[in-house]
Amino acid sequence: xxxxxxxxxxxxxxxxxxxxxxxxxxxxxxxxxxxxxxxxxxxxxxxxxxxxxxxxxxxxxxxxxxxxxxxxxxxxxxxxxxxxxxxxxxxxxxxxxxxxxxxxxxxxxxxxxxxxxxxxxxxxxxxxxxxxxxxxxxxxxxxxxxxxxxxxxxxxxxxxxxxxxxxxxxxxxxxxxxxxxxxxxxxxxxxxxxxxxxxxxxxxxxxxxxxxxxxxxxxxxxxxxxxxxxxxxxxxxxxxxxxxxxxxxxxxxxxxxxxxxxxxxxxxxxxxxxxxxxxxx
Length: 281
Hints:
The chain has 14 helices and 5 strands. The chain is α/β, with parallel strands linked by helices and 281 residues long. Helix 12 (217-221) links the parallel strand 4 and strand 5 (224-227). The longest helix is centred in the last third of the chain and has 23 residues, at 238-260.
């Protein structure tokens, strides 16, 4: 978890309610004012109840307003360079690369912090029980689905991924109660992915969703929801930045499945190594 108050706010920001975003914006723009203000003064400035500000402090991991103030004061007195520093037109090639790497590191740290261990365990259990695993994603998420297929084909389980949305609709309609559909969508609101989810559920399949928004339609409806967190910048959308988190979540699922079913996975890995060995000089 980010130790800085401003870092915690930025981490949670995409999932804040409108009122929480109002408080977050106030703190991000006026951190010095917070240090010298009481909770009543902040609430009055924002036109909200004291309890709303207090709940916001709890939401980002503090015991209350005073604890948040202490953390913020320490941060302002010893300012930290923001790891997701904006790329500018004046940056050279190396500076841009360094900022991208730092942004990716922050995405991974943020995603690790919000990762629900219980949900991860449930997702692994579903994958282990599945006869067939289909990975679904449209647009940029289809690339993540193909990467998931590339990994899980080594598990020895039947698994598939399709780039074309029509193929995805057809395959989802043919799933059964023995199968699992893994749905990947940064927003969790993509119409095609929601339709695929509904088709899979109508077929009796269990569902796992990977999104960045817990309140999205996909997160709310799947059997198990896993979430990523990322920060948007001028030259890099939040959806693009989230992919490193999605890839890492899939890596974690794959590793857990392979370890839990070691005998079968070892045999499958050996077959694949033999099959592709002839492709190398």
